[in-house]
Give the backbone structure.
Amino acid sequence: MTTQLMYSPEFNKHNTPGHPENAQRLTTLLQNLQTASFYDTLKIMEPTPLPETLLTEIHGGGMIEQIKNISNTGDSWIDLDTYVCKDDYHTARLAAGSVLDICTNVLNDNVTNGFALTRPPGHHATAHRSMGFCLFNNAALAAHALTKKGKKVLIIDPDVHHGNGVQQIFFNRNDVLYQSLHLSPHYPGTGDIQEIGIGQGEGYTNNAPLSHGNGNTAATRILQTIFLPIAHQFHPDLIIMCTGYDSHHADPLGGLQFTTQFYADITKMYQEIQPKLVCTLEGGYNLTWIGPCFLAQLGQLSNHPSTIQDTTHEIDTADAVIAQLQKELGDYWDL
Ligand SMILES: [Zn+2]
């Protein structure tokens, strides 16, 4: 088996020092990577930019032109959270392209699974709006490209923030199943249990909002009783994980209590549904902890599992979430 890791030094041209989503995140992950005992087993490659034609199939309404224009002239802000740097039109397409490149390699059986170390992140970018540190929706663009080849894609998103962009892009579709564990109430304010999709997409959006302080125990119970049974019935050809380490207990922008080992555990659970699994980097802002989280998860992907124990003070309010999910999704899935 082979795990592919994809990143480009160009990702760090997207940078605003002092902003939580800055180049130091990727630098830190790469430094941690070099200490990994399994480093030599990884197939590390540089991505190709996502073709413009694919980009326009998901994004529109002027957002591509906006990024293109700022990218030509220099640094600017799209909203209070989201900056665009010179050359970001290329950099952001490179991020999306890295997810698609690994997915293609996995589906062609060139590699077993992979991790795209993407910056800028993507899961908040909607069809018509860059937001929440995200320019283009890396996971959604890759998933959409795969559906054009007749593939069914599951996107699991354990980032502390709800992936409103992924949800919106696939809300009326049944070829992409979106599952999100997230803190609520929290940015961006979407991700209620009742948001299950519309039309053909009914039942193909699964949201588990967790209140402040919930951790591994609540998440695992929701995964085992709701998300994984649905994932199994959906029978995906490939799984994309929107990996956000901001759901870790030490994250400054978080509020959930996931442990470092949780990112390996959730990866293992989804590998058992479909081993063709590709991670893409979303959030995670504690520079001390994102490295260990990344190595735990990458170790799981590359069959070098470790157990790292860190203690948390979690609560478990999953009962109400599970009961409501069964009520909302029971018409569509055998739960
Ligand atoms: Zn996040």
Summary: The chain has one domain: 3-329. DSSP finds ten helices and ten strands in the chain.
